[in-house]
Amino acid sequence: MQQKSEVEAVTQQQSLAVVKNMIRTSISEICYLRNLFDEDCFCKKNYAGIMINALHPMDTKEGSEPHIHNSEAWQLTRWLEEGVFDALEKRYLRGLVFAIYDNPENKSQSRLIETYSYAFTYPDTQHIQLEVKQNNERSVVSTDGVKNQAVILLRTLITLCSTLSPLPRERWITLQLYYYDDITPPDYQPAYFEDTADSSIRPGDSSFISDPFVIEAGRLRTPFHAMCMKVRVTESTLHQTDPSSQHTAVETQEPAQTDAQTDAVLRSILAHDSVDPALLASEFELKKPDLDRVLADLGLLLPPS
């Protein structure tokens, strides 16, 4: 008699931890790959088999005073840990926008260069405890399944950021939060944040230097949280002109290979805002082994579980 393997269901605490880690990790990688902070503001960490660059701008060696390498990088970590995550835990948080602007000397005249937007919902757990597999069997939403979603999102984001042209030397960043008005107290603001209803600095499409492309980096869904991440960049930013000025992408066990077919698949992924293996296989008339090779070259193929 064949035994069924036990599947570990996602708990609410695990779900919250996964979403927090995804926000930390993705913003850290954006900061690293877009050269927003110096190298010594980051440390290498393993995230589900990927070596990522985590923001760690403070040394805490035993027997010595903590040393902050970069006050702005440190401030960004505080915005996340003490501000954003408070709103997330309370389920007030509807959206988060990490925005990069030009012209820091005259912020009222600044234009957007790129934004990284996160949208959050808090599903009814009774409706999504089960996921449907290809053979129509139903299974509990597992920790491995959620981890795979996170890895795909992160790899897609890293691949995208690695293709962008360098940012201007003079730039500045903001984090803006959006709440569910029907449940958020009118006077609520988490630590480090304030009401910007009357501010002229807003991360909308009209504030960009030119019309932006909107690219979906991925989605993360558990029985307790759902998150969608989108990237907005201008056409000029999509064409990298100086690869030597960029940080390298995620470390993998095998060196990535680039050929015309791989480049074409990447452009299709960006155009469709998602990684859809069935669509890609049909568009490029690729059999599964060939498609797997291309996705592996792009760092978007998950290892077998």
Output the keywords.
alpha+beta; Cell Cycle, Spindle Assembly Checkpoint Protein, Chain A; 305 residues; 2 domains; nucleus; five-stranded antiparallel β-sheet; two-stranded antiparallel sheet; HORMA_dom
Lay out the secondary structure.
Layout: H1 12-33, E1 42-47, E2 50-55, E3 58-59, E4 67-68, H2 71-89, E5 93-102, E6 112-121, E7 130-132, E8 138-140, H3 143-161, E9 171-179, E10 212-221, E11 226-234, H4 260-272, H5 277-284, H6 288-297
Antiparallel strand pairs: 1-2, 3-4, 5-6, 5-9, 6-11, 7-8, 10-11
Strand element count: 11
Largest pleated sheet? 5 strands, antiparallel
- The helical percent reads 25-40%
Supply the number of helical segments: 6
| Overall CATH architecture of the largest domain | 2-Layer Sandwich
Q: Low-confidence parts lasting 5 or more residues at pLDDT below 50?
A: 125-139, 248-259, 301-305
Please, what is the average pLDDT? 78
* CATH topology descriptor of the largest domain: Cell Cycle, Spindle Assembly Checkpoint Protein, Chain A
SS-derived structural category: alpha+beta
